[in-house]
Design goal:
This protein has eleven helices and seven strands. The protein is of the alpha+beta class. The N and C termini lie close together (6 Å). 14% of the residues are buried.
């Protein structure tokens, strides 16, 4: 009988987080399994961190780099598969897949609420904020360059050459025309044709005011430096529900992030999966501000308390501003991602 085989193209893996969870499940059992790192050169590391029944990746002072990378990837896949299976058996994992067909956004949130770990497949977007900051710093230069390229292309087109010849012909006729009324008619025709050609030569991308570009760069550098936001939509019929995560740059399996994003794109046209722990379930309505209540209940409001309250309110104010960049709102959920991967399903005899 043929059976399905699921392969994973592992894109992202937070190994430290996975080890932490696994060690708690296995009651901290330590064996001879070492963690190898990509681009390992010479090291005197002699310790080891153990994960039961997993592939062994040895570290030595003269380890071969390719072997180290291969063993690390084997270790990652093995640990991920075991961790998924264990959390599923413990009833701690909710899977948003074809087996669960929601009838509303509320039903999705209801299925999630009581379980801390989520596994889901869907359509995804990867938004690199460093890339956004770099583009905005040169946006007007890009716009000018693109417009110049378009301008040169237009000037070499047959349509442009025909219109330009019409203008030249009209101007020659105007020079030789003696009748004032006919000359005025020709001049009016030249204006119409010139308006058409100016329309063709209009810049394809308009420049943006510097204050706006500088503001975007300031916002990104202060509130979301180095952020790589991963957004996954499990259900096309419920686009208002989205899983949001922040991916750490050093947890990508392929350290060449540009290569990865070229392959899959910033907007993926192949479904990806995410596995992680829920860190935020934004409520449908705002909750009471405990910070304000704390000081309201104090009977003594001396100058020390007033200063303390004012100082802490500054953090609250900045947190409010930062919420604009976090995009944490109902019904979305925030995950700390453990793994991002692509499922490939095959069959075997």
């Amino acid at each position: 009988m043929k059976k399905n085989i699921i392969l994973k193209d592992l894109i992202y893996f937070d190994f430290s987080k996975a080890v932490s969870i696994w060690s708690q499940i296995e009651e901290g059992l330590i064996e001879k399994v070492s963690i190898s790192e990509e681009h390992q050169q010479q090291t005197d590391a002699g310790g080891s961190i153990g994960i039961p029944k997993l592939a062994e990746a040895k570290l030595g002072s003269m380890d071969i780099e390719k072997k180290s990378i291969l063993e690390t990837k084997v270790l990652h896949h093995d640990l991920l598969n075991r961790l998924e299976l264990k959390l599923r058996d413990l009833g701690l994992l909710v899977e948003l897949n074809e087996e669960f067909n929601p009838n509303s956004v509320e039903s999705i949130r209801g299925k999630i609420d009581n379980k801390p770990y989520v596994l889901s497949e869907g359509w995804t977007y990867i938004e690199d904020y460093n890339r956004l900051e770099n583009i905005t710093s040169k946006f007007n230069e890009f716009a000018e360059f693109i417009s110049k390229c378009s301008l040169q292309t237009i000037k070499q087109s047959d349509e442009y050459l025909v219109i330009q010849k019409q203008i030249d012909d009209f101007k020659e006729q105007i020079k030789s025309e003696r009748d004032r009324n006919n000359r005025a008619k020709l001049q009016a025709q030249v204006k119409v044709v010139e308006a058409n050609i100016n329309k063709m030569l209009k810049p394809q991308i308009d420049k943006v005011d510097d204050w706006l570009l500088n503001g975007i760069q300031m916002w990104v550098s202060n509130f979301s430096p180095n952020r790589i936001q991963f957004r996954l939509y499990p259900y096309e019929e419920y686009p208002s529900f989205c899983i949001i995560s922040n991916l750490k740059r050093d947890c990508f399996v392929d350290l060449d992030l540009e290569h990865l994003l070229f392959g899959y794109g910033y907007k993926q046209n192949i479904k990806l999966s995410i596995f992680g722990i829920i860190t935020s379930l934004p409520p449908e309505s705002t909750t009471d501000n405990l910070l304000s209540k704390e000081y309201e209940e104090l009977k003594v409001q001396d100058e020390k308390v007033v200063f303390e309250r004012a100082f802490r309110n500054m953090f609250a104010a900045f947190d409010g501003i930062e919420e604009f960049m976090r995009f944490s709102r109902y019904p979305n959920i925030i995950l700390h991602p453990i793994a991002v991967f692509r499922n490939i399903i095959g069959t075997s005899a």
